[in-house]
Amino acid sequence: MRWRQLLVCFWLVLCGPVLAHKASDSYLVIDVQGAQVSGQWDIALRDIDFALGLDTDGNGEITWGELRARHDAVAAWAFNALTLERGGACPLQVTQHQVDEHTDGTYAVLKFIATCPTSTGDVALDYRLLFDLDGLHRGLLRLDIDGLTHSSVIAPDSRRQTFSGERVSRWTQLQQFMEQGVWHIWIGFDHILFLLSLLLPVVLVRVNGGWRGVDRMGESVREVLWVVTSFTVAHSITLSLAALGFISLPSWLVESAIALSVVVAAFNNIVPMFNRLRWLVAFGFGLIHGFGFASVLAELGLPQDALVLSLVGFNLGVEAGQLAIVVALLPVIYWLRNTAFYRRGVLVGGSLLIMLLASVWLAERLFDLKLITT
């Protein structure tokens, strides 16, 4: 009975991420030259629809007519959640509405201007968009102040930020993107399930068509090092190439391939095909996962020097978040390795569930379906 209860808990942990609302980003570019401000704010239509309900006919598609009919409401909603100050409030005014395609879908583009009370001094920003509805939302900011570029990722606990006309500390910028790298691996449920699928068998060895626990922790640690290092090297390569603009792949293809990688990794735990070659699977599919990590940086369009620094910090954060998962998981599964609960319930049962969930993701991403409601 205890094993059944533990298995139910394990399944609930896996199901939780699938039922959660998808994390989102908006892209905010602001140019402050003295007292004059101009900017552009890209907000995903799916997020606007989530907050305001743009899809009036309920057919699952948002048309230009549906968006145009709500232009005033969208502008009022967005700019009620953004405050800019330089010597006092800078009243933001929308000058144009457009739409644009990003790698993860269609975005409303709000172009705006403002005039600040003074032409010198610090610039303060207060960003509150969607935080009351989606705690996973982030605002990706590029702010130019009199020719000096700042970049930041705005979260609920850092919604108000102040920027000076002096060059920002490189360490501060690196630290900001390290934190966001950790955050994005922890909310990247498909990345986590891929890694989890590869790690579940590391405390077992295949003997005569069955599984038994390893004799020593060192055997598992070596296997973990092979798997994690391969995954790290692979996604670091494509994360760098994609974020720096050398390679670009359609979002639907990347996301579909990531879902497929989870299916393959989980299926391998049920019908072993690679066994001691899991590191090769980690490397091959890790190349695809790198494109997924890169989208959050590439979409911001940072200047080259800021992008390189942001890339390094974000990548270090991803590795730190990944390491935290491994450190928390390995002692637990090593302790359970010789139990029937682990071999049948966690390895086989858990892998079946992971494969099922990833198959749903794959169908959704390939055929633009909505099979799981949130």
Provide a descriptive summary of the structure in words.
This protein has 374 residues and is an alpha+beta fold. It folds into two domains: 25-168, no CATH class; 178-367. 53% of the residues lie in helices and 20% in strands. It contains eleven helices and eleven strands. The chain has a six-stranded mixed beta sheet with strand order 4-5-2-1-7-8. Strand 4 and strand 5 form a beta hairpin. Helix 1 runs parallel beside helix 11. The two termini are 31 Å apart. The model is unreliable at 5-22 (pLDDT under 50).
SSE layout and pairing:
Layout: H1 2-19, E1 25-33, E2 36-44, H2 45-52, H3 64-69, H4 71-79, E3 82-85, E4 93-102, E5 105-115, E6 123-127, E7 138-145, E8 148-154, E9 160-163, H5 170-187, H6 189-199, E10 204-207, E11 210-213, H7 217-243, H8 251-270, H9 278-298, H10 304-336, H11 340-367
Helix pairs in contact: 1-11, 5-10, 6-8, 7-9, 7-10, 8-9, 8-11
What portion of the residues fall into strands of 2 or more residues? Answer: 15-25%
Helix-strand topology string: HEEHHHEEEEEEEHHEEHHHHH
The structural domain count equals: 2
Mean pLDDT: 86
Stretches with pLDDT under 50, minimum 5 residues: 5-22
- Adjacency order of strands in the biggest sheet: 4-5-2-1-7-8
Distance between the termini: 31 Å
Q: Pairing-aware structural class of the strands and helices?
A: alpha+beta
Biggest sheet overview: 6 strands, mixed
**Total number of beta strands:** 11
Helical stretch tally: 11
Radius of gyration: 23 Å
Label the overall shape: elongated
The share of residues in helices is 40-55%
